[in-house]
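Loading example: each entry is read as two labelled lines plus one structure line.
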Amino acid sequence: MFNIFKIALRNLTRYKRRTFLTASLITVGVVFVLVFIAVTGSFKNMMIGQITDSFVGHIQIHKKGYLASIDNLPLTMNLNPKELKKVEKAINETAGIEAYSKRIKFGGMLSNFVETTNIRLNGVNPEDEVKTVPLLSSRIKEGDKTIREGEILVPELIAKGMKVKVGDTVVVIATNKDGSVNGKQFKIGGIVESATGPGGRDGYMHIKDAMEVLRMEEMDISEIALRLSDFSALHQVYDKINRILSKELNKAGKPVFEVHTWEKLSPFFNIAIMIDVMTFFIKIMLIAIVLVSIMNVMIMAVYERIREIGTIAAIGTMPEKILLMFLLEGFCLGVLGVLTGVILNSGVLYILNIIHITFDFGRQTGLILSPTIDLPDIFIISAIVIVVSVVASLQPAYKASKMEPIDALRHV
Amino acid sequence: MSLVTSKNVSKTYITGDIKIEALKGLTFEIEPASFVSFVGPSGSGKTTILNLIGCLDKPTDGTLKVSDTDISHLNRRMAASFRGENIGFIFQDFNLLPVLTVLENVEYPLLMVQNIPSDERKRRVMDLLDAVGMIEQKDKYPDQISGGQKQRVAVARALVTKPKLILADEPTANLDHKTAYMVIDIMKKMKDEFGTTFIFSTHDQKIVGEVEVIYMLEDGELADRHVKGG
């Protein structure tokens, strides 16, 4: 084997320019794909992190049908204390949940005594909310980075439009579950930055204040956001808690609850899917580049060495050794391209991380792109290229191994 | 017992509607450790009979035995294996592998065909390179040595597996007079030393003058058999 390998390597060095050009083509393809995966992957992960850690959380639980009506923020579809207890029991029974936050979501009117506008609000327990969506604190641009009773966090766009600032007094008016209207005066405790995704332009208040505005005697919860200790276990945790909660049926035999991962809650998931599809097609392009270039080179190599093939076959070399000789040549070309590509890719990623490329997404500006690539991705791409290199060499190698020595020796 | 036995061997090539009878019922025997040549004009069938004896081609008719093995019906793999074990080849154009050094070219059949252990392999290669006077050039590549030197390396490569039979198709055609005699001398020496049978296909009078048995071919038929001193 070593000797066949040695001959294969020597044959590659025999046509230096051709080997260099083919390996360079593979290298460029590998670098392109790895950098693309690194850049799009880090963009995707960053955006998912922004969306889940700013507001959405990893998983949300609602009363069945709430999500379909979420634009209306219906108070009639909140979870009553009995149902909430069942959900909390399921959460406690499910491993891998780091924190959860109960939210009362409602729509209301915000008035600064001069102007009035509509506002979407979340009544939350600040400690639970920050544990569940840790980027909330960093989104509070002005004021103390917390939510106190009697205070409201106003979204920055509304604050700008109504020209209100921290410390100003405003009134929130809302219709409760029974249809009666109630209002409460609040002090602006902070201005909250907009975030990409659903709920990214909502205001916040303490959950007790929300209950007071809505005249709730008992805590009726609109949604429960969950944060997992390991994001990669998203679907396992989802399956488990969904299995538990789907057993809860109402009198009509229909499920009481609905559980959704962030993927169902944010439109960014479709962009993430698009990125994955693009990555897939880029990989296909790489395969095509490697396949065509290696096959071309190996067909040339066989054609140029017909008499040599005839000689070694006449001497008594078995067809499988001739096959292996050419397969190894393709393999070595692939390995050469991959190794150079991986090394160059590290350099390109290092430079990209040094120059700090920033980008805007939605209302978020100045996001810094820090492309990194995981070892498994490098191994997968390397394996694809090497396997394709061998596959591309298969036909020419097979042809070489099947040559009749007498015909090959006659070749001029 | 004869090393090569040919009984009514014929070879016909069919190209489209054209039928060419390259060999017509050849019957002959070649003894072990002999120096034999097939001579004749171009197209007389010299190379064809060498190809048949070398298991590179199959006769259309007749029986051809080498070392008591009927080689007329060997399949591709069996033929390759038989060649590797029993037959050495010397080509007109030397056919050395350009990516291997002189030493590696001679070593190739032992390594890739016969799987001989390293120590034995090195010893055999060095002995043969010494015998053909190429030990000094062992690390050179084929493009760094002369035509005569290449043919000496080819002789060493053919002999290294200790074959019973060496087939040489016009081995001196690309060599000058002096070098041709040097190569013929080496082959004679090897024949005497190792008891190997050499079968040539040639019209080179230098070889014809040195061989023990001459088979004269004309239009695919054996026209004459001449034994020196016979």
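The interface with chain B takes residues 3-4, 7, 10-11, 13-14, 307-308, 310-319, 321, 404-406, 409 of chain A (CB under 8 Å).
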